[in-house]
Description:
By secondary structure, the protein is α/β, with parallel strands linked by helices. It has helices at about 20-35, 50, 70-80, 95-105, 120-125, 140-155, 170-180, 195-200, 210-225, 245-255, and strands spanning about 5-15, 55-65, 90, 105-110, 130-135, 160, 185-195, 230-240, 275-280, 285-295, 305-310, 315-320, 325-330, 335.
Amino acid sequence: MSQSERVLKVAIIGGGMFFDDIIGQSFKDFIRGGIAGSLTSIGMSHLAADVADVKIDVCAVGTRSESSGTAGRIVQWFSDDFPDHAIEACYGDAVWKDILARHKPDVLFVATPDNVHTQPILDAIEAGADVITEKPLCLSLSEADDIIARAKAAGRIVAVDMHKRYDPFIREMMLKAPQQYGTINRVRAVLEEPLEVSTEIFAWAEESNPFAYVGCHWLDVVHHYMGVKPVSVFATGQKNLLLNWDQHHAEIASRRSVAPTSFKRTGSINTWDSIDVAVTYDNGMRGDYNNNWINPAEFEGAVNQEIELYGIYGRGLVDQQERGYREAVIGDGSRT
């Protein structure tokens, strides 16, 4: 960070599904007004004064394929709002290496596919940069251990975007749970992504799975607010629809009255339809996490997300189709 003016140089790699609506919009807000104004929504407004003068400078955007032109499109998208702000569009299979060497960012923001998180994170640590990565951190325990060890040794920060813990309804329910619901016996959490994610949007679906992709959100919420640690894990997965997509896409096309050729992928997709994980925690609590990425487009919401706590004095449920939560508490009634 430049100390004379307190500017954080940020480079971004990846520009997929959520860039325009979420990641890019967030960085536009940061360029306009820094990060202080964003701290209220995550319960950190007490730190706003300390960072009020810190400016954010997005210096580069990197994606893999120059032929697709994604980085250039994103840079132009930024330029529409900030014509005087110079951002370089970079390309390459390991585009972060070039960005780290030439731009020397303070922070590398990693928004690449799940299976392309580890190496850019490690390279950024070695280059002396801090990291913010989209979830999941990585796809194996050995990779996680390596990232943590290297970050500690280098004195660098590696943060994961676990934004669901800051959802206002989830935050309110989780903070009040110990007093309202008493000891929690069980947590049930569901996160189901639309079918188009695994069949149309993510070319890399076979390199990941629905639990790694979205299940980590609910794990983070439970671990963050309840301070529990797992002592046993049992998981089952199902491979029916996607593994046999070469057959099932024709049936889905028929049900929707569209041509089978209208699907982006028509061959077998060797990944899990769904994964169900049961966790026993060190306080005896049970956690059940159900995740898939085959939810029909006909479902009432874009994504099916819910978390429910079962306590000895009451229970609470956040169902994000309803954008709120409902609860029933002994002696205090039921409310939505």
